[in-house]
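Same chain as my last thread, 290 residues:
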Amino acid sequence: MVPGMAGAPRRPRSLRHRSPVSDQALTDRANAAFWDELCGTSMAQVHGVTDSSPESLARFDRAYLDFYPYLSGYLPVEMTGERTLEIGLGYGTLGQLIAERGADYHGLDIAEGPVAMMRERLARLGVREPQQRVRVGSALRIPHHDASFDRVVSVGALHHTGDLTGAVGEVRRVLRPGGSALVMVYNRRSARRAGLWLRGLPSRLRGRGAEHEAAVRRRYDHNSEGGEAPATEFVTASQARALFGGFDSVRVRRENFDHLRLGPWIARREQLLGAPARLAGLDLYLTAVK
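reply #2:
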């Protein structure tokens, strides 16, 4: 996608130069190392999942889909024959669901670990050529031809590339006309972000803004050693719509919430996934049609 051409996503002003690492190649290498530990490892440990046996992965998948009860509803129940690309594979729960619903599944991840996991899952499902279907690569240089997919799915990955605008442009490029995209990005105006902003105010006033930003990234994504993701971008709903301005239509919906504690009163996360999440949820789910 060439900047300035019709259909190219417009970069919202507040997204410019958002990556903490200026060199994209360095960001890619850092992401490949960080995300080699599967996203969801903490959840796996909580549920006693320590291997990739069918029984262990089934236990993880139940826990994952229970934790995000709205997620599967963003995809059609019947996807037979739909050529679908998933970007950002994690533990492979969503990818397996897509394949089980009949899609002609393809996957892409910056890191080797998630790719190996997804290939293993596809092989167990009897899907042909999992090595060719699931590749290591960057969302900023998707290794597929223009207009080659009916659907692109990326939940929680594009905002880690260091160039969210470029990643959205690549999603649009590989979609056929009339194809659809499901993308989740982090909500800049969530209740969590507001709380982190207030707690980080003393640090910023002392000139320690970089430390605060790293702590924010760590709150959203961290590995087993406690390190934060190399790059994370946050957008408002209006900024997200602008990013998808080259699509014929786009809908944005807020999802997800944290437990909420106000003095002695505690509201459990499960109680807040309705109206509170619609107002100030952690994540923005975008469904767009090219």
